[in-house]
TrEMBL record, chains A, B:
Subunit description: Homodimer.
Name of the molecule in the record: Xylan alpha-1,2-glucuronidase
Any single Gene Ontology cellular-component annotation: extracellular region
Gene Ontology annotations of biological process type: xylan catabolic process
Domain annotation Glycosyl hydrolase family 67 catalytic: ranges: 133-456
Keyword terms: Carbohydrate metabolism, Glycosidase, Hydrolase, Polysaccharide degradation, Signal, Xylan degradation
Domain Alpha glucuronidase N-terminal: 25-129
List of catalytic residues: E290, D368, E396
Family, similarity comment: Belongs to the glycosyl hydrolase 67 family.
Coiled coil: none
Family matches, as PANTHER family: ALPHA-GLUCURONIDASE A
Length: 702, 702
């Protein structure tokens, strides 16, 4: 026996179990090191009482068993009833303090009871209990009541049929369409587990720039295979649709939403989908945006298009999620033209015209997932239309997978912004969770950062962004620090100094990134071709509002986009209280200054610096902060798995290189206009402007 | 202690060490089950005598130690000298029976001595010795002398800078260009290990449709980081070049190879490359092919272009590998026009005009990696020019990653083809290995099937194609069976029935694939957009020679491409002996019949069937063989790792579905011309022609 164990052990060793490749995410379930701790948990988890055969309940008990097997190194029996104490009880029973997916976890006469109204609540409660053990919390007198604040907590995958991912940087798509439906990659299940563990209950598996092939039976059967894997984890599948699908698939002569044949086509298609996937979630639509087809191609409105799909979905539980990310090129002679205003112009007038089954999905900011944006003016402006939040988890504009940027602070900043539409405290979060306008449907979406890379997200630390999105989707009142602390303990280490250091690293990372790329409210000055590196010098593009100069408007007088009534008037889209925050350049918080004002180079800022000096200071300190991040990371080396440590250390080194480009590019480019010297305390840039331009060009070559 | 071990073990179990995800390829080093066997090997491997500090020798000893740690579950000490017996001795000493990379393994007074002229020989000998243990061979009185028959044994990666792979189906590129040079993915090393273990000593890391960015210092430093990882495994890095790079990178006004400034640019660039990568392998060039730039853009010949690069490489060890894959569209009024002849027309006249440093790389067949092609007419036709073989390991035309197709028989079929240029026995293999024309440079390339998928190749069984390529590159006299047997034992199981069954499965798989896709010499009738599925009905494409009809020429009289003197005359490019094999439709072996002849539907074939009946029979039996493959695979289930078994079983199910499409599509389409019934013994097709067309269309949609 002993010999056998030794051999097995050698086998384990020989396959390098101990180098952590990050595949297990925050569900590691590694053995708790302190025997005492293990035993104290073991005393409270002697058995699981389960008296339901529901698949999702089964999922919960299996997950709990494998969790404890890992964490405590022991097997926990599942029983249907028990008189004794020291066990876990799954209690599926009516509880009016809980909504459909909520749960409570309480100590009741010697047992820990997970109570919920539905099997999904039990599943989420089970993961909560596991999380408590993973993060080392005491279970004695545990008393938790938790309800998700938002109904649809979803990932949007911008995954294409041939396996590429638009704005994906972590390998290719998780979905192997050629192999489906017959071959089921075991990874599909691990994907579902990870999402369920953080409360994500919906996923859109295909790109919003959608292929019509997903509306064919051939592909619906593939999607069904995924839905069958996700269902036991409480996850519903949605599909992005190509609005022109009826015509593309030769079902109709047009795709006009008011054409009876088109309406009939969508009704028949929807019926077919539900015959294949009975719990299908619904449609996500990118229409009349960036070249995609839509109702406006036929002189109809977004409401006409969305309502047609809602009509098709009427007999079913599904909903229509219609994206508000639209921006017509503003006409040359329109002096007030500003991409900032486009979505508002199109959608605000439609408030009240959408079917009850329609949700309008709005990006957090008015431009496009920049490192920092003001909240989107549509939030609060459509009281009669459920608005969903669209965040981007994949780091399209935040350094791909070579920059450590923890996004919870970005998400929170937007959610906590006050729209003032119903007076103080009318936060974006309250718009999204429906409490402000009493929406009957609520949703929040994150554009996924997952891919086929072994660690799922490319940059190991980007796993924290997937995690944070899910946790905030469930409860937007959690703090960024709280979520970071949880994630670090579940994923990296329990050693107090390490937890403290890495949490701090995460919390500060986003502001650091803003500082060395787009400080003081600069935006959209990155390399155009692939949204990589700096390109503030781009004066022209296929569209004026794709060029950097359109946004920074640097000239010999100053820099920044005047969006006040003297400028594009975009600021007028907000309530007067919000306008007052940002109207006066002297009072505008520095993070938003150049979003709304064209400011003179020599203007003195609240920091005491001139604008030019402050701009330089931000770029230089931004770079310094990256060097500091590397020091902080090095300091925790002894407590981090070697493979993970090396990977993050390597990427931080790349980040420093990129930060130098950004600083050199922006400081030298804008200096051409300011004609002012770089403050004396800072060293010279490492490269000439020409040299940085060349570097960025290289990355745009075929 | 015991308790600790138990916990460690639980940890291993909790991370599922036992489900095999295929990552370890054929280097599993799992513990040998029979204790007796382990001990008998252990008696002969008590220590390793190493008295060299060369990196590659270090690689060999480390690999041998970790191999034995896994296989025998014991640590083997490395010593610098030993009087005792029962050990392994690395002996670096002159041996005239061995070429530069060859090795001998012999029992000498109680030790096993690996002897070689260079450290690379020791490395290859070490892997040979490990392979002997992995495949259960006895080491008693071992006596092996092995020399690679070809100098450059290389992989060609068609990997693009942004991570996509042209014709790659196993995820995204292994090379993380954004992260390089700072971040070194541990996988780079495992890639090098796998290649070294089968004797591959060179790799071209970027696509032949090359980005000029690889000629910039920014990227050369990234390539250097890879070269540094590969070097200790005896692998040299090559780069594909964009012939217009001097102009694209604004170094010159033209890229004319005879322009002095252009020649100077390449000389300076080459010098720069060697200053960064001292053992750089050289350049691979796709010129004037499928839109790529080349010397003909300036009225120069391929020789002019290649010789310019050779001149730049003159001071260094590197070589130029120039691809012969070119095919101008033959002019409408050229009645004899045939893509088959294009490369020959361009290159044959240049024989003798290439610099000594130039190798011309020729695809195995005259068209493009079809499931079966006659050998390329250039083989044997350029005695003064070293010709390299280009095989395709990735299954562009052989079912991507959803079809089990073992390619060794395809490779062997070409290598063993007799060109008769110097009389009988003038095989293609002898052209490639230089023995026929006394080439001073020899090379063989395989277009890689590797990607970021965990198991490297998507279809687990496709690992065997990577393995087989390497083994044949080293010794083209190995049989397909021998290689399959080795691979199965190293990768899947030692259980005799399993080895026999899976080996048979592999050996028959390629002919099965030919039968249900392109039997009797049909070729290039697949879906054009992505080379997926059947599309024999394609009459027109952007180029006539991209359309299916161009190749099958089906009409009411018959089917096939007459390439005799009455047709395109392509057959006349071969020696008379070869012509005689294929000249007479009555005598032409059936696998090549429709490659060279337009045959009447009712023509009786050697099988006794009419052409039409034989065609139907092949498509139907091809499908039947897939069903049988599934049965064979199911029969070995008890002896195969569960995860691997399920994955292959799932893909075989997909393969059956695709085989049905092919059969239905081709039988029904050609029946429109033959106007003859499907032989009575066969069931009706499952779909109408319209239905299959629709299916294929779906997979070609955006």
């Amino acid at each position: 026996m002993f010999k056998k164990i030794l051999y097995l052990l050698l086998l384990c060793l020989s396959t390098k179990t101990f180098a952590d490749d990050g595949y297990r995410l925050w569900l590691k379930y590694d053995l708790i090191k302190k025997q005492q701790e293990r035993e104290s948990y073991a005393r409270l988890t002697k058995f699981i009482v389960v008296n339901s055969q529901l698949d999702i309940i089964k999922t919960a008990s299996i997950e709990f068993q494998s969790g404890l097997k890992g964490l405590l190194g022991k097997s926990v029996p599942v029983v249907t009833s028990s008189k004794s104490t020291g066990g876990i009880v799954f209690q599926l029973s009516l509880n009016k303090d809980l909504n459909e997916e909520g749960y409570s976890i309480t100590s009741q006469n010697g047992n820990i009871v997970i109570n919920a109204n539905t099997e999904k609540g039990i599943l989420y409660g089970t993961f909560e209990l596991l999380r408590n053990i993973q993060t080392g919390k005491s279970l004695a007198n545990i008393s938790i009541v938790s309800n998700p604040k938002i109904q649809y907590r979803m990932l949007n995958h911008w995954d294409n049929p041939l396996g590429t991912i638009e704005r994906g940087y972590a390998g290719s798509s998780l979905w192997k369409w050629y192999e489906l439906p017959e071959n089921i990659d075991p990874r599909y299940k691990d994907y579902a587990r990870a999402n369920a563990s953080i409360g994500i209950n919906a996923t859109v598996v295909n790109n919003v720039n959608a292929s019509a092939r997903f509306m064919t039976k051939e592909y619906l059967l593939k999607v069904k295979a995924l839905a069958d894997v996700f269902r036991p984890y409480g996850i519903k599948v949605f599909l992005s649709i190509n609005f022109a699908a009826p015509k593309i698939l030769k079902g109709t002569k047009t795709s006009d939403p008011l054409d009876p044949q088109v309406r009939a086509w969508w009704q028949a298609k929807t019926q077919e989908i539900y015959s294949i996937i009975p719990d299908f979630g619904g449609y996500l639509v990118k229409a009349n945006s960036e070249g995609e087809p839509g109702p406006q191609d036929f002189g109809r409105t977004h409401a006409d298009g969305a309502n047609m799909l809602a009509e098709a979905l009427k007999p079913y539980t599904g909903v229509v999620i219609w994206r508000a990310f639209v921006y017509k090129p503003s006409s040359k002679d329109d002096q007030k033209g500003d991409r900032y205003k486009e979505a508002y112009k199109d959608f605000k007038p439609l408030d009240g015209q959408f079917d009850k089954k329609v949700i309008v999905q709005v990006k957090n900011g008015p431009i496009d997932f920049q490192p920092r944006e003001p909240f989107h003016p549509l939030f609060g402006a459509m009281p009669k239309t459920p608005l969903a939040m669209e965040f981007q988890i994949t780091q399209e504009y935040l350094g791909f997978t070579t920059n450590l940027v923890y996004l919870a602070p970005l998400f929170k900043e937007c959610l906590e912004s006050d729209t003032y539409v119903n007076g103080k405290g009318s936060t974006v979060a309250k718009v999204i969770d429906g409490s402000l306008h009493d929406y009957q449907l609520t949703a929040i979406a994150g554009v996924a950062n997952t891919g086929s890379d072994r660690n799922w997200t490319g940059h190991f630390m980007s796993q924290a962004n997937w995690y944070a999105f899910g946790r905030l989707a469930w409860n937007h009142e959690l703090s960024s620090e709280q979520i970071a602390d949880e994630w670090v303990k579940m994923t990296l280490s329990h050693e107090p100094k390490t937890v403290k250091t890495v949490t701090k690293l995460l919390i500060e990372s986003r502001e650091n990134y803003v500082n060395f790329t787009t400080p003081l409210g600069l935006h959209h000055i990155m390399g155009q071709g692939i949204h990589f590196g700096p390109e503030p010098w781009l004066m022209k593009s296929d569209r004026p509002d794709w060029a950097s100069a359109y946004y920074h408007r640097a000239d010999t007088l100053g820099i920044g986009f005047d969006r006040t009534k003297n400028g594009s008037e975009a600021l007028l889209l907000y309530t007067s209280e919000v306008q007052n925050q940002w109207n006066d350049p002297a009072k505008t918080p520095l993070p938003y200054l150049l979003w709304f004002h064209h400011v003179g180079w020599k203007t003195k800022l609240s920091t005491g610096n001139t604008l030019w000096d402050e701009l330089c200071t931000r770029y230089y300190t931004g770079l310094a902060s990256v060097k500091d991040m590397r020091k902080q990371w090095d300091s925790v080396k002894p407590n981090i798995d070697k493979e993970i440590f090396e990977d993050v250390a390597g990427r931080l080194a790349v980040q420093e290189r990129e930060a130098i480009w950004w600083r050199d590019a922006c400081v030298l480019y804008f200096q051409q206009y300011s004609k002012m010297p770089i403050p004396a305390q800072f060293p010279k840039p490492e490269r000439s402007l020409e040299e940085v331009k060349k570097l960025v060009e290289i990355y745009q070559l075929r």
